[in-house]
Design goal:
The protein is built from 16 helices and 18 strands. It is α+β, with helices and mostly antiparallel strands and 479 residues long. The protein folds into two domains: 328 residues, BirA Bifunctional Protein, domain 2, CATH 3.30.930; 119 residues, Rossmann fold, CATH 3.40.50.800. The chain has an eight-stranded mixed sheet with strand order 1-5-6-13-12-11-7-10. Strand 11 and strand 12 form a beta hairpin. It is elongated, with a radius of gyration of 29 Å. The two termini are 49 Å apart. InterPro entries: aa-tRNA-synth_II, aa-tRNA-synth_II/BPL/LPL, Anticodon-bd, Anticodon-bd_dom_sf, His-tRNA-ligase, HisRS-like_core, HisRS/HisZ, HisRS_anticodon. It holds the Pfam family tRNA-synt_His.
Length: 479
């Protein structure tokens, strides 16, 4: 390369993140537990592509020539706009409509994958993140919505969060009835009211009252414009979120039916509760809505103790599939945010293995014997054990050992000329060696003791490696 040639700076785009082996292993373990619960409920996996025709994501289309507000878009060779999926629900609606004649109804499926949002990134806000969704399409009754709530509760239990969460349930039909009673009819004003209700946990009743009225000024002096309701209108909304039972309507009946299902299945208010402050999308959701909220305290960026908050949500969206078909198609579903849930599991010590076991490394002591070293590696791999031959350029024993240590290897295999002549190898248990070395302070003693190192016959390599505690535990997890 020309010395004057400018090097490309290795930069990660804002709003995206790299993931190393330890995090991938931990998240994969978490998703496997979620999948197991979904499948226990009778949901089957389905996978849709990351790109969809932009019109299929309808509700996110901007009013511009290039549809890139909110979504990442490009034109294909036919000059049709394609967009990276914004969520996992719109692609499911398209898939169901396209395969309507062949799919069972109701259609129960789950999906796990990345979604993409062309929005301004910030702390905890990414442009690419993973979700795990489950949906039932074609079931109109509250039984399907109740099942989603119970399944979310079971997922939290399976992840070790029992006693640290509650699934909160409300109904958009109830909210719509309250808005009607309060004579709130304009779209923007409805949106402002729902946003105010959504701030109940954060600002309390008085904070919501201010947001329902002229507005609220925070500690920094920033002012948030309110919904502009009169005192009488405000009181209707405040009575509702304070627990006053609204007038009978279809939404109230559905909540009562769901509550009866929860109780009959053994889900008490400590796991699933009706909460009038739960608000979801203004147009997207059409019936029951729910959130799974973690209730344990964490310290926020201001040093304040607050509850962790929502890690999943969902609800009934009866209008989404109907964009593709003339007949009404009821649907309900839930979505779990993987990154946020992983953060919660880290805080509670339930994320699982943080650093996956690396491969057993066969050290290369003599370059002209690589065929023999490769044979050892093949024997280990054929026995289901992760293994590799050292492929670096160095002949230095210490540097090869340091490489294995950096790979988180459970052991290395050493065969020099003396061992080869006697038909043996040296196995160095790196994990046991580290523990034993803690009590050794003298370098000479360490070289003499060779902590964790033992000799075995060349023919016993697989048997001896399998017997190492770290390898035995890893093999047990694979079956």
């Amino acid at each position: 390369m020309n010395d004057k040639q400018k090097l490309i700076a290795p930069r990660l785009p804002r709003g995206f993140e790299d993931r190393a082996a330890g995090e991938i292993a931990a998240v994969d373990e978490m998703i496997a537990k979620i999948r197991a619960v979904y499948e226990r409920y009778g949901f089957d996996p389905v996978e849709t592509p990351m790109f969809e025709f932009t019109e299929a994501l309808g509700k996110f289309l901007p009013d511009t020539d290039r549809p890139n507000a909110g979504v990442f878009s490009l034109q294909d060779d036919d000059e049709q706009w394609l967009s990276l999926r914004y969520d996992l629900t719109a692609p499911l609606a398209r898939y169901f409509a396209e395969n309507y004649e062949t799919l069972p109804k109701p259609y129960r499926s789950y999906r796990a994958g990345y979604v993409f949002r062309n929005e301004k990134p910030g702390p905890g806000r990414f442009r690419q993140f993973m979700q795990v969704d489950a949906d039932t399409v074609g079931a109109p009754g509250p039984e399907a919505d109740a099942e989603m709530c119970m399944m979310l509760a079971d997922v939290m239990d399976a992840l070790g969060l029992a006693g640290k969460y509650v699934v909160k349930v409300n109904n958009r039909k109830v909210l719509d009835g309250v808005l009607q009673s309060a004579d709130v009819t304009g779209y923007e004003q409805k949106l402002a009211v729902l946003r105010a209700i959504d701030k109940l946990d954060k600002f309390g009743i008085e904070g919501v009252r201010l947001l329902l009225g002229e507005g609220r000024k925070d500690e920094s002096g920033d002012f948030t414009k309110g919904a502009g309701l009169s005192g009488a209108q405000q009181q209707v909304v405040l009575d509702f979120i304070s627990g006053k039972t609204p007038d009978e309507n279809e939404g109230v009946e559905e909540l009562r039916a769901m509550q009866a299902l929860f109780l009959s299945a053994g889900y008490g208010n400590d796991r699933i509760e009706i909460d009038p402050s739960i608000v979801r999308g203004l147009e997207y959701y059409t019936g029951p809505v729910f959130e799974v909220v973690l209730t344990f305290p964490v310290t926020n960026e201001k040093g304040q103790q607050v509850v962790f908050g929502s890690v999943g949500s969902g609800g009934r969206y009866d209008g989404l599939v109907s964009r593709f078909r003339r007949e009404p198609v009821p649907a309900t579903g839930c979505s779990i945010g993987v990154s946020r849930l992983a953060t919660a599991l880290k805080l509670t010590g339930n994320l699982g293995q943080q650093e996956p076991m690396g491969p057993v490394v066969v050290l290369v002591m003599d370059r002209d014997q690589t065929a023999g070293y490769q044979a050892m590696v093949s024997e280990l791999r054929n026995a289901g054990i992760r293994a590799e031959m050292f492929l670096g350029q160095t002949k230095n024993f210490g540097k090869q050992l340091a490489y294995a240590d950096k790979r988180n290897s459970p052991a290395v295999i050493i065969e020099g000329g003396d061992e080869r002549a006697r038909g043996v190898v040296q196995i160095k248990d790196l994990i046991a060696g580290k523990e034993a070395a803690k009590s050794i302070t003298d370098n000479v003693e360490w070289k003499t003791e060779r902590p964790g190192q033992f000799e075995c016959a060349r023919s016993e390599i697989v048997e001896k490696i399998k017997a190492l505690p770290a390898v035995a535990a890893w093999l047990a997890r694979q079956t």
